[in-house]
Write a structure and sequence with these properties.
about 300 residues, alpha/beta, Rossmann fold, four-stranded antiparallel sheet, 11 strands, about 30% helix
Length: about 300
């Protein structure tokens, strides 16, 4: 019996692909030197399905969602919590002084610091211990809590805590795709925003070049959902929000070679003549053009959905 879509229980779902957990665990050990065997909870395979109503691709079983131990292991890599991200700059331009901002899943605190500089203060939620390094920054409040727990304590915090909600802006970057059952999280995000306030959700763009890549970080136990424009638009039918804009990251300088390798492998596997563009002298010329500005014409890894709470 097929599973239920995590965002629309009435939608038909279609099986897209099956992955061996033994093979995935082997690749994680080879590439990251991380043992993820226990993350799969003795499940022999991972299945990827499409929610036909929303366009969201999702993985089962949901218990393959990554544990806190997995994210602690990944945070040892310098590149895992980047301090300079495209979506941070886009979101920061939407902030103004005096606005109350909450970032859910603030990582090492790069954006919550940026938000505090723009608005005067900002609150971040993060369960990873790395939040300790930003806890003392002026204007920044960090709480090591899940969003649901943070909201549950709102009445008692309101007496003596400037971080009590609701907020003018709630942001969550590169979090949603990690959640196997995202609706409770999304409802809590909306609850945290005052009516007329903004909700900003950033994820990898599943319709971009990533879809042509076998990227372990875009699979369980790391990512549990593949979000795209259609899925973000669909949220307007099930949540009290209005989608105001979808922003797409241009191809980042550090992804130029990854993009070229991905496209070369994709077209080579399909025996397409387009593969020649990504090999030899043509690749060298194409790479030069991308590295010198043309990359901005190509969509990169991430996207940002900007909503207004309507009710």
């Amino acid at each position: 019996m097929p599973p239920t879509s995590p965002i629309d229980p009435f939608s038909k779902v279609r099986l897209l692909r099956t992955y061996s957990t033994e093979q995935l665990a082997r690749e994680w050990r080879d590439y990251f030197q991380i043992d993820v065997t226990e993350e799969f909870r003795d499940c022999p395979e991972i299945r990827k399905y499409l929610c036909e109503n929303s366009g969201l691709a999702f993985f089962t079983p949901p218990q393959a969602e990554g544990s806190r131990a997995l994210y602690n292991a990944l945070s040892a890599f310098d590149w895992y919590y980047m301090t300079d991200k495209w979506e941070y700059d886009v979101a920061a331009r939407l902030l103004s002084p005096g606005r109350r901002v909450l970032e859910v899943g603030c990582g090492a605190g790069a954006f919550v610091r940026q938000a505090a500089r723009r608005t005067g203060s900002a609150t971040g939620l993060e369960i990873n211990p790395r939040t300790e390094e930003v806890a003392g920054v002026e204007g920044v409040t960090i709480r090591r809590q899940m969003l649901a727990d943070f909201l549950a304590q709102a009445p008692e915090r309101a007496r003596d805590d400037a971080a009590a909600g609701p907020f003018d802006v709630v942001c969550s970057f590169q979090v949603l795709e990690h959640i196997a059952q995202p609706m409770d999280f999304l409802r809590d995000c909306v609850r945290a925003v005052k009516p007329g306030g903004r909700l900003l959700l950033g994820t990898p763009n599943a319709s971009g070049f990533l879809r042509r890549s076998h990227n372990l970080l875009d699979l369980p136990p790391h990512h549990m959902g593949h979000w795209n424009a259609r899925a973000f638009r669909y949220l307007q039918h099930i949540l009290p929000v209005r989608l105001d804009a979808l922003h797409y990251e241009p191809l980042a300088p550090y992804h130029v070679d990854y993009y070229l390798d991905t496209m070369a492998a994709h077209y080579t596997a399909r025996k397409s003549s387009r593969a020649l563009l990504y090999k030899g002298p043509a690749r060298t010329a194409f790479r030069f053009l991308l590295a010198n500005g043309m990359r901005r014409l190509f969509r990169g890894q991430s996207m940002l959905a900007c909503y207004t709470r309507t009710g």
